[in-house]
Amino acid sequence: MENPLLLFPQLNISASKDKSYYKVMKSTIKEEPHKASKPGAKQKRNRLSLLLQKSEFHESDHLAKPGNLTKAASVSPEEAVKWGESFEKLLSEKAGLDAFTKFLKTEFSEENIEFWIACEDYKKSKTTHELLPKAKTIYETFIRKDAPKEVNLDFQTKEVTSQNIEQPIITTFDAAQNTVYRLMEQDSYPRFLRSDRYLNLVKGRNPGRPTLRRRSRSFTVNDFQGVRPDFTVW
Q1: What global pTM score does this model have?
Q2: Residue 230 to residue 233: CA distance in whole angstroms
Q3: Could you tell me which PROSITE patterns the record lists for this protein (predicted)?
C-alpha cells in the first residue's frame, strides 16, 4: 500500500499539529498577560489612591505648620503701630526689619538695607583680623564704582571710605552707613508707612493673603421693570 502522504501531498499531519500547537500557545500567551494585567491595574489604582492620600496629608500638614505662615501674620497690630513711631524703632525689631526689607524689594532698592545690615555686622567684629576681609567684601559689594549693589553716596563720603579701606577700623563705614540710613529714613520709610503692606499690618490683616474683590453686580429682571423699550432703534 502506497504512502498516503505521497498520494495526498497537501495533507501534512505534522504541519496541522504544528498549527494547532501554535494556536494553543498563542491563545495562552494572550491570556497570561491579560490575567497578569488585572492585578497590575489594581495595584496601580491602589498606589494612585495612596499617593493622593499622602499628598493631601502632606498638604494639610504643610499648611498647618506655623513656620510656613508668613512672618507678617505673627505681627500684632499694636506692634506694627509702634513701627510708625520712629525709623529706629522699626529697624530695632526683627519683624519690622523683615517687613521693611520686603517693601524695599518691591521698590528695587533693597541694597540700602542690605548695606546697613552688613555695616551692623561689621561693627560686631571681635578681632582686627576679621575687619579686613569684611571691609573688602562690603566695599566691593556696595561702595566701589559699578559695584553689583552700589549704594547712593556723595563724592566726599565715598572718597574717604575708599581711602580708609586698606587699613580698616571699626568706624570705617560709619559715614557711609549714616548717609544711607538718613536716605532710607527720609525717603523710603515714609512711603513704607503709607504702603498697603504696613496698613494691612496695622489693621490686623495678612499682607500675604490677597484681598477679596466684590463680584460685579449682575442684572436681574427687577432692574428692567418700569423701563420702556425704545423701538426707534429698530
Answers
A1: 0.58
A2: 7
A3: RGS
pLDDT at 3 (0 to 100): 52
Residue 93 to residue 105: CA distance in whole angstroms: 18
CB 73 within 8 A of CB 208: yes
- Of the candidates 152, 195, 192, 196, the residue with the CA atom closest to the CA atom of residue 176: 152
Centroid of chain to Cα 55? 19
Q: How far apart are CA 9 and CA 118, in angstroms?
A: 101
Residue 148, all three cell numbers = 553689583
Q: Which of these ranges, 29-38, 111-120, 153-162, 202-211, has the smallest mean pLDDT?
A: 29-38
Grid cell listed for 9: 501531498
Rounded CA separation 115/177 (Å): 8
153 φ, ψ (degrees, to nearest 5): -125, 150
CB atoms within 10 A of CB 149: 14
Q: What is the predicted pLDDT for the residue at 208? A: 52
- Show the domains of the chain with their CATH numbers: 77-203 (1.10.167.10)
Alpha helices, H only, the chain: 4-7, 13-64, 77-83, 87-92, 94-106, 110-122, 128-138, 155-163, 174-183, 189-194, 196-202
